[in-house]
Amino acid sequence: MKADALRGHLDALILAVVEDEPLHGYGISEALHSRSEGAIDLPTGTLYPALRRLERLGYLRSSWSTVGGRKRRTYQLTRSGRAELAARQHDWHQTSSVIGAILGTGPAG
Amino acid sequence: MKADALRGHLDALILAVVEDEPLHGYGISEALHSRSEGAIDLPTGTLYPALRRLERLGYLRSSWSTVGGRKRRTYQLTRSGRAELAARQHDWHQTSSVIGAILGTGPAG
DNA sequence: TTTCGATAGGTAGCTAGACGACATGTAGGC
DNA sequence: GCCTACATGTCGTCTAGCTACCTATCGAAA
């Protein structure tokens, strides 16, 4: 599945996976991949600009470290990022219920 | 709610409302407004280009008429539009279940 | 030793689609 | 005459995701 299908909700997904624990870009990509059972496979040209944008907006804070000789930039959710995530989750529930009502919610919601 | 939140799924919504009965642009706008309980309010700069695109792609067919002295362009779903709608509905169910699984489906989801 | 896959981070240029602002016109009520 | 609802449309702008490309480390395989 392309992130294009998630348009406008990708930020929420990223914020959601770093909510549980701070993660670096590659780790976020893997977390989304596994949590979606393989459905989400973000190209780096989508992920990294998104992370930088979210940091610029103040929702994430990053720090560099070196693990196993490789440099990592680890992102953690800020206070305002946590609030943003809650708002985005609310947006998502509204959006999905509206679209679901028109398209037919299908099996079990 | 902005159509931006529906990105990539707006076409499906339009095809869905004209599936039941042929409608003109303004009527489609009203149908989406009422079916979403007021949540969707499409600007004309979003709706009309979308309709022309869907017609160009062969999913809709239009015809002009005059009702009460006003000109209407009425759109109806084509055979291929019907197939496209089914495909888009399927996409939506997949997308919403993936996002729901990560964000939390909310109450009883 | 070189090559390859996994890990790790990044940019540049392109494109689709939604947006706000604007343009045009009819009909009916005040 | 003016306003609101009805009705259709364009134009230039902006967001955000995409493809393609680049750099670099590490361990295993050839």
UniProtKB/TrEMBL annotation, chains A, B:
<keyword id="KW-0238">DNA-binding</keyword>
<feature type="domain" description="Transcription regulator PadR N-terminal">
    <location>
        <begin position="14"/>
        <end position="86"/>
    </location>
</feature>
<dbReference type="InterPro" id="IPR036388">
    <property type="entry name" value="WH-like_DNA-bd_sf"/>
</dbReference>
<dbReference type="InterPro" id="IPR036390">
    <property type="entry name" value="WH_DNA-bd_sf"/>
</dbReference>
<dbReference type="Pfam" id="PF03551">
    <property type="entry name" value="PadR"/>
</dbReference>
<protein>
    <submittedName>
        <fullName>DNA-binding PadR family transcriptional regulator</fullName>
    </submittedName>
</protein>
<dbReference type="InterPro" id="IPR052509">
    <property type="entry name" value="Metal_resp_DNA-bind_regulator"/>
</dbReference>
<dbReference type="GO" id="GO:0003677">
    <property type="term" value="F:DNA binding"/>
</dbReference>
<dbReference type="InterPro" id="IPR005149">
    <property type="entry name" value="Tscrpt_reg_PadR_N"/>
</dbReference>
